[in-house]
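Holo prediction. Input below; ligand is zinc ion.
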Amino acid sequence: MTSTELQAEDIRWDLTDLCESADAARTQWKALVAHAQDLASRYRGRVAQLSAHEMRELLDETDELEQELSRLHVYSYLRLSMAATDVEANDLATFSRERVADIENMLVFLGLEWIATDDDKAEELLASEELAPYEHKLRVERREKPYVLTEPEEQALNARRPMVSAWQALHDRHVSTLEVPFDAGEGVEPHTISRLLSYFYRPDRDIRVRAVTALFEGLEPRADVLAACYDALVGDRLTTDRLRGYAHPMQPTNLDNELDDETVDAMMGATEEAYPIAHRWFTAKAKLLGLDKLELADQYAPIGEARAFTWPEAVDVVDASFNRFSPRLAEIFRSCIDAGHVDVLPRNGKSGGAYCSSVSKSILPYVLMNFTGRLRDVSTLAHEFGHATHNVVALEAQTYRSHRTGIPMAEVPSTFAQSIADDYLLEIENDPGTRAALAVDRLENAFAAIYRQTVLARFEQRAYGVRGDGRSLGTERLNELWLEENRRYYGDALTLPEGYALGWSYIPHFIHVRFYTYAYSFAQLVALLLYRRFREDPESFAPKYLDLLAAGGSASPADLVAPFGLDLRSTDTWREAFTELDAFRVEAETLSTPPSQ
Ligand SMILES: [Zn+2]
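Structure of the complex:
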């Protein structure tokens, strides 16, 4: 083992900033529950009568309480992330989840009473200087008002929630227990869906093609049950939408995302208009792979062979690229590393993937990595620290409540950070294989986030439309809708195998959070637009970008990006993002084409 590998192995979370022990956490949870109880006894039934000054006191106190809750919750969650089977960690996680639910229940009256406050009184409060730090979030909460029913009606709707969860659980179980016999070179073994999907990225074409066939053949016997789950859930959502008075099935998601219908329509329309960019890449990729035409199994076939990266190299790339953009971001990055807030290597019992947990105004965020020296891990490190720097800068300027954004804006700084790290690496890296792999990864990740997520959202719109017309969502019908929307994307540039008709069947978002996916298209496209602005005028861009980070969730996405001259309702704005994406395509083609002899 080399010294750099050892160095990485030593880098584990130091959780003492959060809490000293599980026992201490339990004691502190109890104190926090008592505090919440006390707060509730002082304010319950009084929210609508509070003066602006009293309201401010209430919100400040709640803000402190929520940060304490966050600190203890993150502590128990991180302990569990490090040791999934550890008994103490599991006990503490269960204990913590229950306390979170207790406290949320105790404080639920705050939001309900605020929504119920009459409009004149609410406007008077919102106009006061004292409530300015909370104004936007308070306004957003009240947007739900027209769709909230009477208390007995809400109770009746709540009472059927276990039924809804049962359909979701049935779907989850049918997907997670599916095991398909497959031979990946070491004899036939049972394979889960995610293991089969991982073969789509293999250089070996035979494995890719067989994995695609095996996945869809494996789903076939379960399709009818999976369709029945979806049909039941869509039917239920349409019924409750009607009772609440929503205008269309996407409206609750758009409200949550603080995006108006016009913006979402303009974005999705411009995305579909730009499908030919993908077609051009698929054609070029077929040529690079020596194929007449690309098949689904070749979509994510690797191009270019990337070299390995050590942990110190990855840290240098992020540090230097952040520093070049804005020294403040690099400073936050290094403080987190120095404070022991990054856990680097994969270990037995540690959770997979990567994430960033924001904690509170006084504690730096924590980042989980599973660093194995791949090029992709370098991008992931930049991505997670895009989140971390956003959290820190926003928490400095905002209240805890106002620092947080919805998914559409939350994924913008992470995507942007990845872009500046990727660009820096493309500049300094000499190895042609690594440069090609980086440019292709960047392009294909953007396709997956922008195009595929839009296809998914369109499929959902069609499905809700069909169900709303009184037709059921059986396997055949879902297959048809799925293929139609996918064919619009892939066009003639990529061949879809027959089995792909079942591609809708295992996607969890359709079952758990409707129209969840377009927020990722949004974030990726806004990050591209910001990147374009940055390249046009790097000098004036960085300070404005730091203001955007500092604003956190204190304004709507439209207002947050307005200083960059972006009008999100205009199709032309979104078209501009695709000009930038097309430049990624050209770069990927150039770097992956070997120089002619
Ligand atoms: Zn992210």
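The longest strand covers residues 180-183. That is the main takeaway for now.
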